[in-house]
Amino acid sequence: MAVTISGLYVYPIKSCAGIALDSATLGAFGLAWDRQFILVDAAGAMMTQRTVARMVLLQPTLNLERNQLIVHAPGAHALAVPLDPQGAEGKPVAVRVWEGQPLGLAVSADADQWFTQVLGQPCRLLRLHPQSQRRVRPEYPESWQLRHQGWKPLNAQDQTFGFADGFPFLFANTASLASLNAALAGKQQAPVTMIRFRPNIVLDGLPEYEEDYIFGLTAGKLNFAFVKPCTRCSIPNVDPASAAVADEPGITLMQTRSADLGVLFGVNAVLTDNTSDILHVGQQVQPEYDF
User: 3-class DSSP state for residue 240?
Assistant: First the structure.
């Protein structure tokens, strides 16, 4: 069976709702506009659904013709933010995103006021600063390269990316989600949707959890190195339709997908070089296996 792309998702504001795309421009930096904005609290710490579940109800949309990011929230007027304002200046703001410390740039007082009102706590909206130089932790691509020297050399280690947790790409597998939902059904629990896991690229045509054994993947002109299984936090327990927080699917994942690294679902990836391309839903891809 052919392996194809069944979903492409971009998340312009870290931990807010995602956007399903029919096609997307990708480079070593990630998908265009992915995690280019972040919310920080009054202390300057990043905000995520882990502690502010309501963030999932904030729905960004991209209006590329007007160069705007439009954000919708229940009970509030829409907010329009320039995607790429010309001549933006300001003091860089360091934001700790786990081990990384990308630089942000304040967007506007109006944006801060809007997010403060809809989330019910003081916060600021930052965009990725043009001087930000955040890179993937080197041990993952270096370890991958040692194990797969016969495939593609990694030449994109110095490419920076935005406010994603640790990698520019997250892949997931539809059959793996079906397996998880079957386990949930066996416990009389409701199924969950893929968007809870916040992938960028969803693959169809693989057996369940076969992504565990893939080390690379070619899609168009792009070669992806699958450098690390994705360890999961509590965010998949947040219902994207209501922001309600429950124990599932976290408990079932812990029971079925625990490993030394943690609870696993999906794979983090980087590009092997700085090539860019446009990928499409329905496009066939070629996985490379460790066995």
Answer: coil
Q: Which residues of 246-269 are buried (b: 16+ CB within 10 A; e: fewer)?
A: eebbbebbeeebeeeeebbbbbbb
The pTM of the whole model exceeds 0.70? yes
**179 is written with which tokens?**
């397996």
Q: How far is it, in rounded angstroms, from Cα 243 to Cα 119?
A: 12
User: 14 — phi, psi (to 5°)?
Assistant: -50, 125
Rounded to whole angstroms, the Cα distance separating 173 from 207 reads 8
**Residue 173 contacts residue 210 (beta carbons within 8 Å):** yes
* Residue 259 to residue 267: CA distance in whole angstroms: 14
CA nearest to 172, candidates 230, 254, 239, 256? 230
Q: How is the beta sheet containing 23-27 ordered, strand by strand?
A: 30-31, 23-27, 277-280
In CATH, what number does 3-289 get? 2.40.33.20
Rounded CA separation 267/226 (Å)? 6
Decide: 59 and 72 in contact? Cβ < 8 Å: yes
Q: Which helix (H) or strand (E) holds 9?
A: strand 3-10
Q: What are the helix (H) ranges across the chain?
A: 109-119, 139-147, 174-186, 250-256
Residue 155 has pLDDT above 90, yes or no: no
C-alpha 105/C-alpha 88 separation (Å) is: 9
25, two tokens = 């421009």
Question: Residue 130, SS3?
Answer: coil
Q: Nearest CA to 254 among 165, 180, 170?
A: 180
Question: And the tokens for 39?
Answer: 């919310």
Q: What is the mean pLDDT of residues 134-153?
A: 92
Backbone region of residue 110 per phi and psi (left: phi > 0; alpha: psi in -120 to 50; beta: other values)? alpha
Least confident of 13-17, 135-139, 157-161, 222-226: 157-161
C-alpha 251/C-alpha 257 separation (Å) is 10
The pLDDT of residue 18 is above 90:
yes
**CA separation for the pair 13, 30 (Å, rounded):** 14
